[in-house]
Amino acid sequence: MLLQLSARFDPQRDVVPWLSGQAPAGAPGGSGAADTLEKNLETLRTVNIERNGKIIYTWKSIGRHTCIGLYDLHSKKNEHLYTFEKDLHVISCSVNHEKTLLAVCFLQSTKEERVNLLFEPVSKSLTLLIEICPVNNVKVLKAVDTHVRVQFLYPVAETNTLQESSLFLVSEDKYVEKFDIRVVKEGQKVVIENSSQLQRERIVDDLIWAQWDMLEQRLFYIVPKESRDTLNCLQFYSDKNFKLLLEAPLDISLADEKLTLVNLEYDCYQDQEIVPRPLNLKVFTSETGSLCICYSQAPVSPGEVTYTVSFLHEGYSKTYTVALQRVDSLEVNGLTFLNLDSYVAVYLPGHFLHLLNIRHPDLMCYNFFLTGEDAKINGMNKSSALSPFKSMVLDGGTGRLFALEINKQALLQFLWESKLDHDRLAALHCVLLHVGSTADLEAQIIHWISESMSTCFMFDPIQEFIIASLYWRMCPEAINLDKLLPYTPLQCWNELVPGIKCRTHIISLPVLMVQNCKGFWEKLRSNLERVKYAEPNLHFCSKVLRQEWDKLLSDESREERRMTTYMKNIYENAEKVLYNLNTWKTEDRLVPLFQDEDYQQKLLTGLMVVHLKDHLGRHLQYVEKKKVEQIAVDYVSKMLDLMYQIMENVWKKCGLDSWIFSFEQRGNSNENLMFHTMCHILQAANGMCFPLPPGFHTLHMELGVRCLSVYTLLHYIDHGVLNLTEMCALKFLKELDNTEKNVKLKLSILTRLPEAIGRKVIQLWNHPVGSTIVARNYVKPLFEKLRNKKHRLLVVDRLSAQTEFLPLNYLVNMLADVEHQGWMTPVERNTVNARFVEEIALKHTTILLNL
Length: 851
Fold this sequence. Notes:
Blueprint: E1 3-9, H1 11-14, H2 16-20, H3 34-41, E2 45-49, E3 54-60, E4 66-72, E5 78-84, E6 89-95, E7 101-107, H4 111-115, E8 125-132, E9 135-144, E10 148-152, E11 164-171, E12 175-186, E13 189-192, E14 199-205, E15 209-213, E16 218-223, E17 230-236, E18 242-249, E19 281-285, E20 291-297, E21 304-311, E22 316-323, H5 329-332, E23 336-339, E24 343-348, E25 352-357, E26 368-371, E27 385-386, E28 392-395, E29 400-406, H6 408-417, H7 421-435, H8 439-452, H9 461-474, E30 500-506, E31 511-512, H10 520-532, H11 542-557, H12 565-584, H13 599-619, H14 625-653, H15 669-688, H16 696-707, H17 710-718, H18 726-735, H19 740-751, H20 755-762, H21 768-789, H22 806-820, H23 826-831, H24 834-848
Antiparallel strand pairs: 1-29, 2-3, 3-4, 4-5, 6-7, 7-8, 8-9, 10-11, 11-12, 12-13, 12-14, 15-16, 16-17, 17-18, 18-31, 19-20, 20-21, 21-22, 22-30, 23-24, 24-25, 25-26, 27-28, 28-29
């Protein structure tokens, strides 16, 4: 099961032993019969959960007195708050932060009496404000014919003790009132100051739906307007003030729906046959500035379930239609929306579980759609599950409060067992987002990657792992960084998810009523501005980087690259990345990397830092330049480190701990696996224009020499799968002897070397073939200079007396004159000259003439 519940509060476990161990509060005396006590304990009901983790519950004592208790989730202790000496139906209850005031709303009739009142006026509900420190005065706030929900506001800073409490009441008569209650201390008592004239304020009128966000102290409500219904939000602050911060026009009409509050919507005394089921609509927020409205719709056909999630922060909604394998109207009514912060869970017991990624809702491949055993959530009541807090579930039937979380082991198992690419993508991103990046977890993901690289067709698992890991690691470094760094290499996803249909609709954007705001509202404003002004995709793209990289390589081949300020900046940033890698280097590194430098990869490393720094600097203008530069350097450093981690884990898996390179032996199956893993890494890096760790190409070539035939090896070199480096070429020259076969191999390798490396390496080959190549490489650029300058040389017969070979005399005289004019570089002058060319030419001629 992907989702698991862990009980944070269970009345039978956490309250019943406490009640059984003491005389029932409010009882006239005596312990009563055991069976009577057990029967009364069955009346235990959870009524409310306050922001500070205190749970309010009620139970009936032996004398059928209604008692109210409080359980603290942190201290695991119970506390008796108040007792009514009559049998009441408590429908709403709240206690202030200081536990000096208690607000209660109850029905003044028993359950048995209500059965006989089906055709009579409904009994009144009564709302009271009670002083409970100690139990003292009682004040009537409301006496109406409708239900009333009461809720004290809680300060954000729990240690801040205030002398004034704020209480708001939500009435099914479609209004919200706020009471400001000041208390004073009289001896040992805390009493309401001027209780006859409480300050009250009508803060909302004509609402048709409401939801209280206990954790963030926000009241969402919907009011009808001439054009269409509008979702509003009041934000309450620690100073007891509040502001209307949000207005969002809706595309649905709720005029005929029944009012309900999410945090208090379950009333165990309501008969479901008599009272219509409230509208199944929820508002969920997340710390990243996401705002979603979830609601179920009437199905078009009896075998379908339809629900809509409006991503207000993105400017569109998605309507999902699921065809059920079996039809059961009672089960269909149990559709539940749960808040997992970065995910919204849509759960229909016995049918499906749909996890929607609200941070990146555009592509279906980031969502889970599960059926069968994977979709089960054990322990959840089918028809009364609520989501009072993020990642919390309240079972209204039993009063139990659960922490809802994604099961790490089940998620990894799902990743291994999934056969469809969209399931694998959803699982991979969910692991990195929810479970967190640890060495053990990364090792398990890399193990999965090594086994699944050839079975993923719609995406590259190495690219996804590297980019997603970097995304979740780096985003906390600065606000809005999640909009600037790539989340995935995928541009689109056109594959259908079996069992579910999706339609996308453009919706109106919410309007924020306050300009200067912090936290969630600041992030929401940033999201809305991006959508409102139709900003293009701001995520860093490697397209421009690839163009610049190709240009630098082209300049290198034409010998046009100069050490300009721009190039110095590139190499300086590359050095910062390499310094990071050396700082992170551990003693037990097994893969023989970081032993040489690939100047092309070093160039690409620095170039990526420069481009990423420029990209971030354009959009993070409020962040200092040093911080932006450090983010760019860390991003590229961690990218190279992740590539190394992939190689390290596969290296250990292959048992290559003490691997030593040698031309004498052929590679085994483990080396072959490592070689092909590096091929996949190279392909992934080339696809995203990402640099590779220092020494990657050298190690790759060494494994290729051991695992491939000569023909295949040269074929891989010609097609860019293997890249020759200076260190690798030197190993070829030093470790292979000069047999005819090896000379041909050396010559094949040398002719494929990049020109800059070839000129340096060829001079170290003490062999006639090598000397011939050196001579040719020396003569060629000199003749090109002569042709370009159109210079007429005066042939001086300085060397012809030694060799009676007129064509060679002419060539040598020409080279000598060039030397005399100082056209060659100092390095060439020390190692090769016209005399050297003459000697090599004579030797080569005698060989060709068999003399």
